[in-house]
Design a protein that fits this description.
Elements: H1 2-5, H2 9-35, E1 36-40, E2 55-59, H3 61-66, E3 73-78, E4 81-92, E5 97-101, E6 104-107, E7 110-111, H4 127-130, E8 133-134, E9 139-143, E10 161-162, E11 168-175
Antiparallel strand pairs: 1-2, 2-11, 3-4, 3-11, 4-9, 5-6, 5-8, 6-7, 9-10
């Protein structure tokens, strides 16, 4: 159809190129805003899994389709600075009971056995007020892997995270290149 209307092959080629570039840009914008998003890790609360300065790709569609699962690493906005995303691990879902006893977290009476977090938890946060608790409907309970250096659901400034606030699930670390891969 384009060949029949535009006789000049240079103009036709330019229009086809511009159309292809426009479609590529549209595809990129849809993927960036609705499927994947890049996030930067700031701070040390997710060590040793993720380190300060790491760059990760968030899967937004998978999160919407499959919902949260215990063990997922998720990003969500920090209430006091919505431009900043917190990245934490889901340890409990709605209806689960979370407690902190003898320096360890328990979910539904079972001690969390995390390979990445062997230190005894000495930083209780506001846990004396909050724990034990049953995770409210529509929310998740999140912790940093570096439990003694993490601001997470133990603190009233973070609390239980509404599932609707989650930006996405960490899919892969892309920076630094030497650490590229799944988390």
């Amino acid at each position: 159809m384009l060949k029949n209307r535009i006789a000049n092959p240079y103009v036709r080629s330019l229009i086809e190129w511009l159309l292809a570039a426009g479609l590529a840009i549209l595809f990129f914008l849809v993927m960036r805003n609705f499927v994947f998003r890049v996030a930067h890790v700031t701070g040390y609360s997710m060590e040793p899994t993720l380190s300060h300065g790491d760059m990760v790709v968030l899967n937004r569609v998978g999160w919407l389709v499959f919902g949260p699962r215990v063990g997922d690493i998720v990003a969500f906005p920090y209430h006091f600075n919505p431009g900043d995303n917190f990245i934490k691990r889901v340890i409990a879902m709605e209806g689960d009971e979370v407690d902190l006893r003898d320096g360890a977290f328990y979910v539904n009476g079972v001690r969390l056995d995390d390979d990445f977090s062997q230190d005894r938890v000495i930083r209780r946060g506001d846990a004396d007020i909050l724990l034990p608790l049953v995770v409210p409907e529509g929310t998740i309970f999140v912790l940093g892997d570096n439990r003694n250096y993490s601001k997470d659901s133990r603190f009233v400034t973070v609390g239980n995270v509404p599932v609707s606030d989650v930006v996405g699930r960490v899919l892969v670390r892309v920076w630094p290149l030497g650490s590229f891969g799944r988390t």
